[in-house]
Amino acid sequence: LKLEHHLRQALELGELVLHYQPQVKIDNGCIIGMEALIRWHNHAMGIVMPDQFIGLAEETGLIVPIGAWVLRTACKQARAWQLAGMPIRIAVNLSGRQFHRFQDQRQLLDVVLDVLKETELSPELLELEITESILMHKLDTTLDTLNQIKQLGVRISVDDFGTGYSSLSYLKRFPLDTLKIDKSFVKDICTDANDRAIVSAISAMAGQLKLELVAEGVEDQSQLDFLGGQQCNYGQGYFFSKPVPAEQASALLRQSL
Ligand code: G
Ligand code: G
Ligand code: MN
Ligand code: NA
Q1: ipTM
Q2: Which of 42, 86, 204, 229 has its CA 20 to 30 A from that of 29?
Q3: Residue whose CA is closest, atom 24 of ligand 2?
Q4: Residue nearest to atom 9 of ligand 2 (CA)
Q5: Which CATH number fits the domain that encloses residue 6?
């Protein structure tokens, strides 16, 4: 209850912050995008990580205003990078609840439209990360929403790919651009034959379906070497950089050019 009370005030007190983690093209090391990851700097509790409050934000509906803030802040930042001659993609995580309308609150599509208009960010520089579970619920409305978002030129990626309980049929039904291989498959890729087989198979499938593929949780060179030998073009993880504040992310970008 106390956490909820604090979370309700977090937005107006300006306690929410975005960190950014680079997404890197494996063959040349260039940064092609940044994933925005939220942090909460509370005066009493210190830095609170999203795993500790996103669930609560979903249950209380606070994820709607928080999610809109994340989208706006991330797009503003990406627009600033674009204007500075560094036109990289910005990836924003969406929760299940953000797909469904709350009473008196606008739909996701309207928020995306507003933010793009307000920030003047090119739509193709925005990528929305959704989970397999989003694709499984309310099939028809989800498909409608995704098609409308896609028509704006915005990209759609599937986060934590391979860990959900969904069927692969959604890969042809939904307008997807990118799969992000969950880090649990990447972790032991150098030693575990099953993980190697799974990642190889996902890479081949993504290639044939013309989906971009990002490996998450890349922590060392040997993992990268294996991924480079697959049809996996992009990587993200501590090996390149942990999620960092905007200033540091800008510095990483300037170095990458
Ligand atoms: O860095 P990490 O601890 O940031 O993220 C933990 C989890 O929180 C991940 O599953 C991530 O997708 C989620 N997350 C991070 N930022 C956001 C956000 O802005 N919105 C939503 N819905 N989830 C987020
Ligand atoms: O669910 P999602 O993929 O959006 O969240 C990514 C989560 O993984 C975040 O908590 C982020 O901080 C974390 N993360 C990013 N890079 C690495 C990595 O190289 N190793 C591990 N273990 N976690 C990572
Ligand atoms: Mn993500
Ligand atoms: Na993920």
Answers
A1: 0.97
A2: 204
A3: 217
A4: 37
A5: 3.20.20.450
